[in-house]
Amino acid sequence: MTKILLTGGSGFIAAHILEQLLARGHSVVTTVRSEDKAQRIRDAHKDLDASRLEVAIVPDIARVDAFDEVVKTPGLEAVLHTASPFHFKWTDAQKELIDPAVVGTTAILKALKRDAPGVKRVVVTSSFASVIDEAKTEDPNTTFTEEFWNPVTVEDIGRSPATAYRASKKLAEKAAWDFVKDEKPGFDLVTLTPPLVLGPVVHHFADLNSINTSNERVVDLVKGKWKDAVAPTGAAYLWIDVRDLALSHILALEKPEAGGKRLFTTAGWFSNAEIAKVVRKNFPELGDRLPAEGTKGGELPPKDKVYGYDNSATEKILGIKWKRLEESITDLVKDIKGFGI
């Protein structure tokens, strides 16, 4: 049993990580941004021995001293750093997106080096956004792997919300690797670069309007917004189930051979057209809201119009059998239906 610091514990991905960590016998110190979120986590684990779960408040992860106190928790041996913004709704990308991502990552690494000598591994949640080059998404001669970095710079952030997000993820991840290279702390680093994350929700959300960003497309589908035309899938075309991603974080922490590695965690191709097909098949009662079979839109491009990918190195390390899209979407829609749809 290991004592682990998990940042951003009320988030979509981290909430699944928390449940799996506790199920595997680990003790967890997790951070959230408000007392309200902290109390929800405590209430959800009332039957757990108090020594196995502590919740700390970190209101602003962009502060350079954000994690200074929590890293002093006695007995910490590893850190899973998931706290970072994922949304396209801001007025100042530098202040609201880039700074929280970069400062939040470097601040916790500095604090760990200074005040947490027992920590031997740090796992950071990055994103496929730090990998993918938007200029090559239609190039079949490009194969994205763990070695790729997107070419976006700070100067590009005004181009589009998606470009700004890619910049934030790349800059934060690069800053983490640079810190370990330059500062030589007593811990090693693992980063994960998942693409679109789908699947059921275990964290609290008030209503469907506040569901996590990556699952919004499925909410739109079951609300009837795709009835006449399936929405475009986007440029990524790769996905992973949130439960597999949570397990990937834990295995990245537990497996010695993961140390110093950048992991490309994906279950493979998906499309909005395929999501619509899954929901039509498994939820016929929603039929009047769903696009009929044959409705155009949301398809994968032909193979000569899309990039390739290879995450075999990651699969060799983690040894995970990825969940199928049908299971992921079916479990998610069951959650969505709980809100009366």
From TrEMBL:
List keywords of the entry alphabetically.
Oxidoreductase
Mind listing the GO molecular function terms for this protein?
oxidoreductase activity, acting on the CH-OH group of donors, NAD or NADP as acceptor
List, for all copies, the residue spans of the domain called NAD-dependent epimerase/dehydratase.
4-261
Its protein name is NAD dependent epimerase/dehydratase
Signal sequence bounds: none
SUPFAM superfamilies in alphabetical order? NAD(P)-binding Rossmann-fold domains (SSF51735)
Please state which protein family the record places this protein in: Belongs to the NAD(P)-dependent epimerase/dehydratase family. Dihydroflavonol-4-reductase subfamily.
